[in-house]
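#lab-general

N.A. 3:47 PM
ok so I finally got the sequence cleaned up, no stray characters, all 548 residues accounted for. can someone with queue access submit it? mine expired

B.Y. 3:52 PM
send it over

N.A. 3:53 PM
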Amino acid sequence: MASSVLRWVRVVVASLFVAGAPIAVAEYVLGHHALAEARVETRAMAERYLERAEAAIGEGLTLLRDLKNANSVTCTMVDRQAFGSSAFQSTYIQQIGLADPKGTLLCGEPMGSLEQPIRLPAAERGDPSVMVGVLSDGRDDRQTFVLVRVDEARRLVARINRSALEFVTGPDYLSAAQQVAVYLDDGSTWMRRSGTWKPEQEPDSIEETAISTRYPLRVSVTVSALAARQTVAPLRSIILIGSAFLGLMVFGWGAVLVARGANGGDVFTRAVANQEFVPFYQPVFDMFTGEIKGCEVLVRWQRPDGSMVPPGQFLPYAEATGLIRDITTQLMHQTVEDCSALYSRHRGLKLSINLTAMHFVDLRIVDEIREIYETSGIGYEQLCFEVTEQHPLKDLTLSRTIIQRIQALGAQVALDDVGTGHGGLAYLQKLGVDIIKIDKMFIDNISTDHSSQSIVETLVELGNQLGLGIIAEGVERVDQVEHLKGIGVSTAQGYLFAKPLPAAAYLELAHAMLGDGDAGGGADDEAIADDLFAAVDAPDQTDPKAAA
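B.Y. 4:20 PM
back already:
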């Protein structure tokens, strides 16, 4: 009786923990995503202000150099007309004039644009021939100027219009909760603007800085982290409800597994110990040539009675408990047993293995890859490890280190489910992957939905610019193939070509397509391989899945 009560106490405690985990993860992901997006927007705002400031200074320098080269460097009527004409035709310059060594403006045009004359810093021996500075009345009235020295007695000066940086950029939710400051390297302030919100009121505000490589400029933009988090407030309740529902499902699943357990173990743990998880191999093809390029390894739970448990029924639990790491290790060992002979014979074949966020919490996975494949018939260069966007990586710096060590072995790393998860472009920027895999949800409607088309084409263009390989997942129709080929995607997997296959079927198919007549393939196998791609080229194909 006592053991029964203890067992059910463990069920309740473990299930409550698993049930609460999705809610905690959802809360973390929402906040992390909101802050990450706000940081990207803040950085973009700083760069736009810097770009405008550089444009204003650059325009002033260009005008002054043109006037100096034209020898328009006096206060004669002709030269003053040239000053006024240049200022009038400019975008950011308010006035152009001539100053003496003491900083007195000798003349300037247009004169009517200024309420009172200015006094520039006095010239000193050794001053640079070009200077940028800020005039201030000691309060908030500041104006930036550009100087070009003509000789020891004269300096051309261009005053930048105060409105040059008076523009609003960034998303609406940050417009009232931002502070912008533009500085020169000497510490003087060109412009500072903020609304009622002040950074000192919020210790965890977000700040981004942009520094010019051309001029002595620095831009700082600070935004409210609270305002950023408010953007996901409408979604929080919806996601929390959904997470709670998922938690209840996991609760029930965990309760069943623990309740069925015996001698301190549960059904799932015993399944892992008994190595009931087997790899299935989904082939990957070149859509232009019809060549088989390799496969992706997918996990299946094969019970002792021969029945199969769908991945959706056990993967969430495996990931929540950390047992997914043991399962992945078992799959890798099994791929060596299944595929070493084939892959040692065909060095161009690739083998892709899925990793989860659990694999990026320490360096153990790198040691396991080395131990399993170092002396196998499968070379490191034939391996590709896929990391998904659907589960956030807790430590991007550590994740990047793990990926670099995997790549140092000679293997590649792919970003799976691109565009569907939490990482977004930050993963592409920070993780340094080699391949992107376009998710099935975008491929499904690529021929009919403009949004899906735009997303896929954008990902392809981005991948090409970054020099990344591109693989399309979930290809099931001929029209999808034609569209993908039309935008330059050559590699794909999906039910149109082949469903995930047990090892024997995958090896038979690969031998047939690679012409290994003495390795199990024959004339009939080669005919099957030829038929596999007949549907792709047939214009009147009515049932694409039948060909797979």
